[in-house]
Amino acid sequence: MSSSAPQDPRPVGGHRLWSVDEHLADVLGAVRPLEPIELQLLDAQGCVLVEDVTVPVALPPFDNSSMDGYAVRTADVQGASEEFPAVLTVIGDVAAGSGELPTVGPGEAARIMTGAPLPPGAEAVVPVEWTDGGTGGGAAAGMTPASAAPEQAGGEVRVHRAAEARAHVRARGSDVQAGDLALAAGTVLGPPQIALLAAIGRGTVRVRPRPRVVVLSTGSELVQPGEPLTAGAIYDSNSFALAAAARDAGAIAYRVGAVADDADTLRSTIEDQLIRADLLVTTGGVSVGAYDVVKEALSSVGSSGPVGSSGPDGSSGSGDGDADPDVDVDATRIDFRKLAMQPGKPQGFGTVGPDHTPLLALPGNPVSSYVSFELFVRPAIRALMGLPESEVRRPSVRAVLKADKALGSPAGRRQFLRGTYDSETGTVSPVGGSGSHLIAALAHADSLMVVPEDVTSVEPGTELEVVLLG
To answer: What percent of the chain lies above the pLDDT cut of 70?
Structure first.
């Protein structure tokens, strides 16, 4: 990599640039995990446990059969073969869920189904394929349904193979013992964890709920997919991308249709959405254009006081006093900043509403919006869930650049380039260019290549940090 000198660039106008790390630290420093609640098991899927769960009863709670076959005493089938089968008297059926169990005595067997409790006196289970199935013929392929041949629950069965003690028997407590730790606090509940909770008899569990994230895109030019495009219009992709990304992060996402470039309309929409939001995400309208209405709208949405923001120089608000004056009012506190990154330079962060609901305002270019989500919004969602710090951010690896030519990067900016990562070779290849509107390339990328602020050119063969998106 080749380096350039500037570490603290100041664009025209004197605005200080926040670093990526400073902005993320400000966001995470203000976000607190949601309060725990008790939920039914299926409602708790995707949530994080807030307490250790111990096993109240052994699992399985009794010795049971792992095969369809016959419960026998080992002495009665010792030396059994196809030529000289052991002939046993069948004393009845033991099905899964059976209550009263027959006692297996010398020379006897009970027909038993998978999962059924091992009856008293029995020491092993011989699979039905090791017997004649009570038909008096050769090896059985399976059991005849009880309703079709109830007589086979009695009579005789010929056993063609011996069985050792405990053969095909699942021992009581062989999965977990009473008092064992089933799941530790901090566990994310997926299908296997839900299954375990149900298996040990838990109907509800105490968790931090999945955050409710409301996504709003702004722009009078935006048209909903499926509708015809008019002159100068484009389809709204940002709200779909960010809502999907929020779900992928573990949130419950609510996508609001595109809001026109009107401050009153946006303000009213945000106020309406506060009732169902643990986190608000807007996209578009945060730059310096005449129609960037997010700044204008957020100057009047009812909240008071900042969300923990100390600037790059340790001061409050937007750092060195260069914040836009129209957003620092009594009604709300959203700090609009410029970050030393590409794409995604313009960003906003603060709270709105009586509950001080966090709001992240992202730029409107599709790639800028998505990269900003991955770097700032996803960690905020994961922090709201109460996940440990190690699981808040996307994992990253070191990989060698595989490219036909050197990649350029602007001085003083941390650049995030789309790439495809090959774990077998430890290489990463660029996808598309660096333009913040190139959404097609983003669809084929599985990672972000990180070029540090002090690097202006990355040669093929150079090792880079790679953020994995999948």
So the answer is: 84
